[in-house]
Amino acid sequence: xxxxxxxxxxxxxxxxxxxxxxxxxxxxxxxxxxxxxxxxxxxxxxxxxxxxxxxxxxxxxxxxxxxxxxxxxxxxxxxxxxxxxxxxxxxxxxxxxxxxxxxxxxxxxxxxxxxxxxxxxxxxxxxxxxxxxxxxxxxxxxxxxxxxxxxxxxxxxxxxxxxxxxxxxxxxxxxxxxxxxxxxxxxxxxxxxxxxxxxxxxxxxxxxxxxxxxxxxxxxxxxxxxxxxxxxxxxxxxx
Length: 239
Hints:
Blueprint: E1 11-13, E2 31-32, E3 35-39, E4 49-52, H1 58-64, E5 73-76, H2 80-83, H3 86-95, E6 101-108, E7 115-118, E8 123-127, E9 131-137, E10 147-148, E11 153-157, E12 162-165, E13 169-170, E14 175-176, E15 182-189, E16 209-211, E17 214-219, E18 230-233
Parallel strand pairs: 1-5, 3-11, 10-18, 17-18
Antiparallel strand pairs: 2-3, 4-12, 5-6, 6-15, 7-17, 8-12, 8-15, 9-11, 9-13, 9-14, 16-17
């Protein structure tokens, strides 16, 4: 999210980013403009995260079914109606070891990478619809904050699936699979993606620090705010 409440390209949010791009359905195992879309059960996903089981998300998915799906992308970091649910309390208690979390959502229509970000903590996503995640590895970021987008991989996450996206995994807004768009629950340590104070730069990585617990690299074609670090090199992948 933009630290000053500024929307990043295509994302309408109280604190967030925005994207555009509506297209036809995306199929499992198909290559879309050079990116092979793999299933979340593919062994390649183990580098980026894991599928989480054992949580009853029916009530959570019911509430998500009433959330808006704009033509671009909307991100809400903290939604009280989601945070009061018993399953949300379970995520906080077990998956985050009793650390305070925020439960929000990212919904809309998107087909492009535009940017990649990472946190100092895992992110839990609950797919309320089928969606695609474009993912990369923090370890592949160059010394000057550059990342070759050809290294990224795409994974289709079926509706109802809970995934943990590791702290070292580069990610951004999901991509929609069907014309109706996507809905995704986003769970993070409380305060993540919110406004931050300016910091004195100690290392080059500080150039990527865009909001609290959010290090961001944009693509030159992504339409990000002027203060976003442009570090993605190569094509702006699109499904």
